[in-house]
Amino acid sequence: MPEYLPPGTYFMQGNKALTEAAVTAGCRFFAGYPITPASEIAEHLATRLPQVGGVMVQMEDEIASLASVIGASWAGAKSMTATSGPGFSLMQENIGYAFMTETPCVIVDVQRAGPSTGQATKAGQGDVMQARWGTHGDFASIVLAPNSVQEMFDLTIRAFNLAEEYRTPVILLSDEITSHMREQITVPPVDQVVIRERVPPVDGEEFFGGALVPPMPSVGEGFNLAVTGSTHNESGIRFTADAKVHSTLVSRLVRKIEDAARKLMDCETYNVERCDVGFVSFGCTSRAVYEAVEMLEKQGINVGSVRLKTIWPFPEKCIHDLAEKARVVIVPEMNLKQIFYEVQRIVNGAAEVVPVNKIGGGEMVTPEELCFVAKESVEKL
Amino acid sequence: MRTEIRFAGFGGQGIIRSGLILSMAACIYGDKNAVQTQSYGPESRGGSCRSEVVIADDEIDYPKVDDPDIVVLMSEEAHRKYMGLTKKGAVILVDPDMVTARENSEKNVYPVPASKIAKELGKAIIANVVMLGALTSITRIVTDEAMKKAVLRNVPKGTEELNLKALRKGFDYGKLLLKGRHRKEG
């Protein structure tokens, strides 16, 4: 196996495409604990990372997995972990730690049906809010949602780049269907993939403040480096009671992501300027929407669609644009209304928002079900 | 044109691998698009297992199989679960030695004793390859050559010859069934 996957067309599983993208993006450390439907990621990286001078470690649990990923990142390696809902729950504490210490890393959550052990091998989309609010305290997350094997590759590259650009943990929110699905993928030549590298500070530069996204040193490079999840000032010194230091730090951490919301926004839109009925979807569910849109158009219904490739920060503008024209906005998801309430908040009465929810058994919302809801909504107009 | 194929059986029979081989025959060694998905329980062997393939000339949006055109049933449980759900015109391949239920004469069923043929060849686990051979002959969804290449791409080193033998047995059995059917109809 050469260092990078040769460019070309492959028939590949989503999880495997993700691992090849990680290698291309420069990931050289992976720690994880096996869990369906994410295990293939650890399995492939156990082979791939040593081939490129990297390290894969199976840890004792998911808490330790993310802890070592954070450590490896501070040692200078681009690093990643991958899990599913139960492991993602365990990681919440360290997601907060990575956020507070501004540690670039990628956390993959391949969603299955929860809560708890739920249905271990069946797809779900129930971790949308956990990815946003799972850790305690004030927090802002960057969450990307692929819907194809191609995007398992492309968005993994983007996740690593955003982690470095904003010095923050980035969550790649996949699902069992997208991760286990096999389909065609085009792998670009490595030299055509834009890869963002870490910028170390120069002497005297602050690395926990000053700039909105400060430069990051590695351990062993000097700088009197101290890294703490406790509130700290621009030099990394603990301040566990001072209101101003806390407010300055945490406000900046949230602001650096909120201010970038427009730049992070990534929606795939179709016919939003003209449609009567619009869909808002993400992940595997959007594949049913594509089909439903085609079916409805054949029946003369003016239909549009917004697909969220970035879920958090929530792409408010895309939803606004859709609600300006559409009179009905349909939100299908494999959970009980997690994106729905967000959409309702943005639409704010400008259109009727209709949820379509399906959970359990890994069953997708079908194109036929979506057509039925769309037609029923149109008739009521 | 969109064709949906469902393989169902239990874990360990190579159900998911069958879907993978057929997909690769269609899109790597053929000129179609293919998407393969799967559904299995928490057990790695013995639990019920399903693998689904969509083959189309155009890009494939919805990746799941809701109303298959071709169904391969390799266990009692799969037969019980999916026979009734399968539409009338669909081509159904059943391994009669894995299923006790009587054939439903209203449906388009082809009995392929894949596990028996595989055992005669000396290895029960290649029943899925026999089945893929029969499926190729009966449905012509991919060419013999494409299927052969996809099988070779997916089997462990040292087993190529045995797998090709199993595939040929499947090709022949499928052709035999078709001939018998034409004779009956004629």
Describe the fold and architecture.
The complex is a heterodimer of chains A (381) and B (186). Helix content of chain A is 40%, strand content 22%. Chain A has helices spanning 14-25, 39-51, 62-74, 85-100, 128-133, 149-166, 176-180, 243-258, 261-264, 285-298, 316-325, 338-347, 367-380; strands spanning 8-13, 27-32, 55-58, 78-83, 105-113, 119-123, 142-144, 169-175, 182-187, 267-270, 277-281, 303-308, 310-312, 328-333, 352-357. In chain A, strands 2, 3, 4, 5, 6, 7, 8 and 13 form an eight-stranded mixed sheet that branches. In chain A, strand 11 (277-281), helix 10 and strand 12 (303-308) form a beta-alpha-beta unit. Chain B is 41% helix and 20% strand. In chain B, 49% of the residues are buried. Chain B has six helices and six strands; from the N terminus they run E-H-E-E-E-H-E-E-H-H-H-H. A six-stranded mixed sheet of chain B has the order 2-3-1-4-5-6, with helices on both faces. In chain B, a hairpin with a 7-residue loop joins strand 2 and strand 3 (48-56). The A-B interface holds A 11, 36, 120-122, 177, 180-184, 284, 287-288, 290-291, 294, 362, 364, 366-368 and B 20, 23-24, 27-28, 33-42, 60-64, 66.
Task: Summarize this entry quickly.
The complex is a heterodimer of chains A (381) and B (186). Chain A has 381 residues and is α/β, with parallel strands linked by helices. Chain A is built from 13 helices and 15 strands.
Descriptive labels:
heterodimer; A: alpha/beta; Rossmann fold; 8-stranded mixed β-sheet; 5-stranded mixed β-sheet; 13 helices; globular; B: 186 residues; alpha/beta; Pyruvate-ferredoxin Oxidoreductase, domain 3; 41% helix; 20% strand
List the helices and strands and how they pair.
The complex is a heterodimer of chains A (381) and B (186).
Chain A: E1 8-13, H1 14-25, E2 27-32, H2 39-51, E3 55-58, H3 62-74, E4 78-83, H4 85-100, E5 105-113, E6 119-123, H5 128-133, E7 142-144, H6 149-166, E8 169-175, H7 176-180, E9 182-187, H8 243-258, H9 261-264, E10 267-270, E11 277-281, H10 285-298, E12 303-308, E13 310-312, H11 316-325, E14 328-333, H12 338-347, E15 352-357, H13 367-380
Parallel strand pairs in A: 2-3, 2-4, 4-5, 5-8, 7-8, 11-12, 11-14, 14-15
Antiparallel strand pairs in A: 1-9, 5-6, 7-13, 10-12
Helix pairs in contact in A: 1-2, 1-6, 3-4, 10-13
Chain B: E1 2-10, H1 15-27, E2 33-40, E3 48-56, E4 70-73, H2 76-82, E5 91-94, E6 108-111, H3 114-120, H4 127-139, H5 144-154, H6 160-185
Parallel strand pairs in B: 1-4, 4-5, 5-6
Antiparallel strand pairs in B: 1-3, 2-3
